[in-house]
From TrEMBL:
Lineage of source species: Bacteria, Pseudomonadati, Pseudomonadota, Betaproteobacteria, Burkholderiales
Record has Thylakoid as a keyword: no
Main location: other
Species per Swiss-Prot/TrEMBL record: Pseudacidovorax intermedius
Highest taxon listed in the record's lineage: Bacteria
HAMAP family: FliE
Protein name: Flagellar hook-basal body complex protein FliE
Pfam families: FliE
GO CC, alphabetical: bacterial-type flagellum basal body
Gene Ontology BP term (one): bacterial-type flagellum-dependent cell motility
InterPro entries for this protein: FliE
GO molecular function per UniProt: cytoskeletal motor activity; structural molecule activity
Entry's localization field: Bacterial flagellum basal body
Family: Belongs to the FliE family.
Keywords for this protein: Bacterial flagellum, Cell projection, Cilium, Flagellum
Amino acid sequence: MRDRSILATMELRLNTVTPSAAGLRPAGTARPAAGVDAAAGGGFSSALSGALREVSNAQNESSRLQKEVQMENPQVSLEQTMVAIQKAQVGFQATLHVRNRLVQAYTDIMNMQV
């Protein structure tokens, strides 16, 4: 049950990325020239680094909001801060899951008989 909620969260995060931003093309579209695709910087590594950057930004934003609430800034609400904290926590948990799955896949591949 817990895996489903994390997968649903990851699907929501992935749906916000447009196919062109992630370097992906819809099925049936023409493949661009090799130089154009490489220049766009698409691929798994750029998508992963972008996702890590977003998680880091969410954590930084939640820390900033926590400090503002502690300093009793009237323009920052407690509800806004709690939502930012939860977003950062969910993003971190999803990132941790992806890392664990990647490590497990690497271990499985390295243990394969050739």
